Fold each of these.
Amino acid sequence: MSVEAQDLNLLANDNRGKHQLEAGFDLLGWDEVTQGSVLPSFEGDASDVAHKKSEERTYSGYNSYTATVASWRVIKPVYNRDICIDCQNCWVWCPDTSIISRDKQMLGIDYDHCKGCGVCVEVCPTNPKSLLMFGEYSDLGESLADWPEKKKKEEK
Ligand code: SF4
Ligand code: SF4
C-alpha cells in the first residue's frame, strides 16, 4: 500500500517509536513509502550539520533520530567511568551512534537509541571492562557494586 506524502508527513512528524508503540500506533513500513519520495533528514539548510553536536541539529521527522528503539532492549550496557580510558572504541563501533562522547571523552550512553546489541562491551579493552550488559531494569548503583574485579594474567 502506498501512502501519500501528506500522510507520511503526519506519521513521521509524530515522533515514531516507543510513544507510538504504547499507543498502538500503526508504524509506517519501509515498503509503504511511495517510490521516488524524498525524505529530508534535516530541516532547512544542513550544509554545516557535520560541525554541530547531535542535540543542536534540526532533525526532520523522517530522521531515525526522532524515533526511539529503547523498547527493543532486554539488556542494556552500563558504563563505569572509574575504569574507562577514553579510548573511543565503543564510540567507533556502536552501530547506532549511541555512545555519547565529547572532545574524545566518553560521557555515557544514549538509551533512546541504544538497541542493546552489546557490541560496545565486546570492543571495550579495559580489565575489567568499562561497559557491561545488565538487565534492562537493573539499578545503576547495584550494577556498579556488582562490577567484577580485575582479572590477573594467567601464569605461563
Ligand atoms: S549496546 Fe549496541 S547499540 Fe547500545 S551503545 Fe552498545 S553498541 Fe551501541
Ligand atoms: S571502549 Fe571502554 S575504555 Fe574505551 S571509551 Fe569505551 S568504555 Fe571507555
Note: Confidence is low (pLDDT under 50) at residues 1-21.
Amino acid sequence: MKLTMHGAGYVGLVTGACLAEVGNDVLCVDVDQRKIDLLNNGGIPIYEPGLTELVRRNEEAGRLQFTTDIEAGVRHGAVQFIAVGTPPDEDGSADLQHVLAVAGNIGRWMDDYKIIVDKSTVPVGTADQVAAVVREALAEQGRAVDFDVVSNPEFLKEGAAVGDFMKPDRIVVGTNSERAAKLLRRVYQPFSRNHDKLILMDVRSAELTKYAANGLLATKISFMNELANLAELYDADIEKVRIGIGSDPRIGYSFIYPGCGYGGSCFPKDVRALSRSAEQIGYQAELIEAVEAINNRQKEQLFTKIASHFGAAITDKTIALWGLAFKPNTDDMREAPSRSVMESIWAAGGSVRAYDPQAREEARHIYGERADLTLCDSADAALDGADALVVVTEWQEFRSPDFDAIKARLSEPVIFDGRNVYDPATMRELGITYYSIGRGAVVA
Ligand SMILES: NC(=O)c1ccc[n+]([C@@H]2O[C@H](COP(=O)([O-])OP(=O)(O)OC[C@H]3O[C@@H](n4cnc5c(N)ncnc54)[C@H](O)[C@@H]3O)[C@@H](O)[C@H]2O)c1
C-alpha cells in the first residue's frame, strides 16, 4: 500500500520504517529540511535501537523515502498518517498547531479519497477539528473530496520503539467509518500474526485511551514516589515495599520503581494536557493534577539531598552526573529529570561534569557551551575532579561500576542515586556515603 507519514520524529520515523518493513511504499514528509537532508544522506536524527538498520534496509529496497515536498506527500498515500509533535502550549494544553497545519495541507492537495490517521497524542475532539480544517481547505478551492479521519494513538516506548511497533500489545483504531476500518485492518494485519491485536472503537474513546494509558502509568510512578518520601520519614525501605506489593498480581512490578521523577516527551505533557482539557469542559481532574504536582516535587528530590549534604559549600562543588536522557536507550532529554538537577546545581553556583552514552549531543544542543557544564566521553572521565556522583538515568553501564575507581576519582566518596541502582549495604561496606530514594542515607 502507498502510505504517507507526516512527521519524521520518534514516532513518524519508527512507524514509517516499520510499515515499509512489511512491504508498504512509505513516503515520510517533514518540514525540517535539516532532518530530511540527514535522512537522505544516510544519517539518522535520533538514537533508537535497531532503527538505523531498519531505515537503511527499507530505503535501499525503495520502500521508504523522505521529502519536504508536502504536495508530493499528500498525493502519495491513500492513508495519511499525522505523527507531528503536540507540545504543551503556555497553559499546558496540547498545542495542535502542527496537527492542524498537516490537516490543512492534506485538504489543500488531496484529490481522491484519503484516510487521515491521527497518530499524534491529541485531546478528545481533535479528529473533529482535523475534519473541519480539511473540509475548510477543500471548500476554499470549491472542491468536495471524500475522506475519513481516524484516531490511532501510538503506544510505542522510546528505547524499545521498533520492537513495540513490530509486535504491539494492541492497536487502537477509533473510527465510525467501515471503509476506513477495513483499510486500516489491512495496514495493520502484518502486525497481528498470532492474534488480532486491533481494537476497534469510536473516535473519541480512542483519543481518550491514549491519555488514560499515560495517565495511569504516570499515576503509578507518582504514587510510588509519594510512598518513597513517606518511607524515608518512617525509616522504612521503599525497595522492600516495592517487592512486597509488586508480587500481588493485581498490582504487578511494572511502573512502581521509585525515583527522581518521570520525564520524557509523553508523560509530563500528556498528564498536563489531560488535566487542562478536563478543565476546559468544566471538570477538575484532581487525581491527575496531584500526579503532576508530585512529579514536579520529586524532580527536586535529588538536588534537595545534594544541597543538604553540601550546605553553603555547594557553590564551589563540581558534581559528576551519570545519565542525561530521560530514560535508558534513548537520546531524548525532553523534560528529563537530569535537566532539573543540573539547572538547580547551576543556580546554586555549582558545576557539572556529565556523561550519557547517547544524549551528549542533545545536551550540547540544549545548553550550548557553558563554563559550568563539561560533557564527558566516559563515565570515568565525568568523575575526574568531581566532588560527588549523581546517578540520574539507569543505563546498564552504570549498574555495576568499579566503586574503588569511583572512590579514588571523587574528592569525597558520595553518591546520590536517583534510581536506586545500588545496594545500601554494599555502599556501607565500601565506605561510600550514599543517598537514594525512599531509603535511609548511608553515612560513611
Ligand atoms: N516519542 C514517543 O515516545 C511517543 C510515543 C507515543 C506517542 N507520541 C506522540 O506522537 C507525536 C509525535 O511525537 P514525536 O516524539 O515523534 O515528536 P518529534 O518532535 O520527535 O517529531 C515530530 C516531527 O514532526 C515534524 N513536523 C512538525 N510540523 C510538521 C508539518 N506541518 N508537517 C510535517 N512534519 C512536521 C517536526 O519537524 C518533527 O520532525 C506527539 O503527539 C507525541 O505525543 C510520542
Note: The first helix runs from residue 10 to 21.
